[in-house]
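Comment thread on ticket #2218

A.B. wrote:
> Attaching the input chain for the structure job we discussed in standup.
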Amino acid sequence: MRTSRDHARQTPAEQGVAIVGAGCRLPGADTPAQFWEVLRTGRDTITEVPDDRFDIDRWFSPEMGKPHTIRSRSGGFLDRIDQFDARFFGILPNEAEQMDPQQRMLLEVTWQALEDAGRTAPELAGSNTGVYVNMCNSGYWDVLRAAGRHDLHAAMGGEAGGMAAGRIAYHLDVRGPTMALESTCATALLAVHVAGRALRSGEIDLAIVGGANLLLSPDPYFALSEAELLSPTGRCRFGDRDADGYVRSEGAVVLVLKRQEDADADGDRTYATIIGTAVRGDGRSGGSLTSPGVSSQEVLLRTAYEDAGVSPADVDFVEAHGPGTPAGDPVELSALATVLGEERDPARPCLVGSAKSNVGHLEGAGGAVGLLKAALALYHRELPETLHVRTPLAVFDEPGGPLRLARERTPLTPIGRPALAGVSAFGLSGGHAHTVLSEAPLAARATPRRAEAPAYLLPLSAKDPTALRTLAAATAELLSAPGGPSAADVCHTAGTRRTHHERRVAVVGRTRAELADELIAVAGGRGARPAPVHAPRVVFVFPGQGSQWPGMGRELLRTDPVFAARLAECDRAVCDEAGFSVLAALESGRTLSTMDEVQPVLWAVQVALAASWRGRGVEPGLLIGHSMGEVAAAVTAGALTVAEGAAVICRRSGLLARRRTPGAMWAVQLGEEPAARAIGAHADRVCVGVVNSPHATVLSGDPGALAAVVAPLRATGVHCRQVQVDYASHAPQVAGLCPDIERTLAGLRPREGGVPLHSTVRNRVVGGAELDGRYWADNLRLPVRFADAVGAVLADPRPVLFVEISPHPILHAAIEDGIEAAGAAAATVTGSLEREGPEAATMLRALATAYEAGCDPDWARLTEGAFVPLPGYPWQGERFWVDDGAGAWTSPVIALPHRHVPAGERYDEQADRPRRDPGTPEECAEDLLRRTAALLGIDTGEVDLDVPLTQLGVNSLFAVKLAYRLRSDLDITISVRELLQAPSIAELAELVHDRLPGAVDADQAS
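C.D. wrote:
> Ran it. Output below, let me know if you need it in another format.
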């Protein structure tokens, strides 16, 4: 918990609880932005009860008080309540269909709210985050019971009200308090009160608060209609003299709360600040259990504003409970007029409204709807109108009265202080809650301007390829919209404030328009990898001479502080050793010609590029150097200091520049053995100096002899290219320099590095202490076994990313050749810069490749910008519903159109019983495969016999079921522990076979 600043100098808002994120699914609105549009435009989203809930014609009656009938044909309803993205949450199909759809909806809306708050899964895991949610009784448990679903999955999914909070906490791995609260229609604001107290006391650091309501059964309608609580005209008409009851509605709202000072420090966007809360009960003040009491509501209001530290006379508007009931509304308004009217300026009456006139009443979640509306109104500085009012109640028309009904859109004009609002929720049980909001502090709204970058990197990810394309299209639309957020802010938010899933794409552009164009191409199917990615091993590859070009590194010197700092360090070391400036050579833009200048400059650029990659959060697990590139690799490993690396490269290249033996090198498109055969009789003057890949080598030696070797190769169509050097590295021609190299580097004291280095001289991973003067002589004289180094990496089947650390890629093709020869589908190659290309953008494109391969750069160090809202995750819903429970009901419940159930998805005890008991281990494995697939609700093709049951998602509950079926069908006993601990299904099948009565082994069967 951060240390608070001096509270005496803070405003109530600065001491309060910030609403930093919101998610919703409401009638006519799937996001807070859509909900605000409903409110702002004065839309009414109430409809008639849809056919897929129940037959309203069967139960409707306009007669007042008639038992077993429904008085209202209207309500606020959601579409696709049977849809759920179970794969996103890692929930198996058979478990998903037994979850109350409210639980499923709360999972998705919670994720939406957390994305809106800019909270990521890694930062939430293990955090001190509390979950305070509730859901009403939807009737889905009755559907499960009617279908004969009585196991623990069904009970957790349909009956246990606290499981919604538990599922959210489990999925996010948050460790704060996890609870469901209940106070009828005051439930949601009760949760806000409890969560706010926990935040303000320091008990937790973040809170997830909300609730859900679905209307699957007509049964609650009967009681509410008989009590004349429902509106026969089908609208909540709060504040109207002819109000006749409320309209039931479905939906979910989840809010993310955080201490305001923490939100300001973290650069969060704050919708509004909760500065006070209170919860009370009616007791007997209303005369009966369900009748509201004016005196208790007055106490509630005074308590809330005292907690907030503000005068009720300063409140600008109140989002009333306001369901439109003839009994409840006058009581609520009387208490508001009394408390908010004291010492109020008659020229500034308090505006009052109710979102229930737009979307109906979500009952237990209704307070969250009101709180969201009030927060949005403060954020947008505008109060929407309240609908369906023809004749306002008298309290609103009193001359100089303290209250006015918000019958039109009203701007919240600044008056020298933050705007204030109250939100009320009153439960049928007598529980009441009031929340006081303030406009967010100015610091929370500040968006500092930043200098434009030369290019931007925008990452997007999802758990499904269709979702990724949809997200790309939505983000392109955001970037194309006039007046939208800046490219810097979008990229910063996408990098630092979004969870990075396993299906990824990243695009680079200089402007919003360029980024949008790239994303449109992605939405059309370009760029996304065909399979999910996992974090790869990262191998930095440092090539030898040949990648240099005039002016290389100049743009990065201006735009990359890490690159510039490391290059400056190398510049000082080279200047001390060789007496010239690397920086001056680069800035001049001239062609580097002599050996003793080319190699030190190229070495310095490689060392700086490696630092740049690491500064962007891409850390190598292995280094491979090629010829002179091993010097930069050794410095990057930490085996040599920068000064020592400069000594090696400068002193050795100086000796090369003064050599007397002529030489040449040719790159040929031949493997090592064919190249050696081609040398033939010239083996005394020519050798295979470099083995780059299974099909590429470099011949080194005497110029005349090399010409004689190359000529017949070119005549037969072998691709040959002369390397632009006038000496013969990795050949006998340089052997005479080796004693001088050892002598000049005799004082070198290498040490063990922090990153392993695979030597292309020794053809193994070497210790840092081995990199003495003798080693650097061998590095010049002995062959470069680069292909073997790459092959050793690829022998491990895990994903790997090769990053070529050079100003231009010259080993990319050789690595790709090695990957193809090894059949390594999980290997990726990228460069760093390209000759004469825009360096910042090229480096970002290389980083995009790394991200798409599964690397997670340090986005906070990579991007600068402010947090801005981005499109939410596009759910890929599939239908999950227990259809076989609908027909067994004495009262009609939701009966959605029956779906086709694929073979193997559902286990049926009779139909799926094997025609004969398995006899061999192979038959046991096939039987287990079928049983496992049916148990989990997946296709048999998704079951791998070589993995344990736990890896497929089998937990103790599923294991209990499987153990029972094995016992009842095959008359064998396998414990739950044995099922969960078996290394693989195949080995478990052997155990099953061994315990079968009269088991037959494979040899006997044949």
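A.B. wrote:
> Thanks. Noting for the ticket: Residues 1-9, 887-915, 1002-1006 have pLDDT under 50 and may be disordered.
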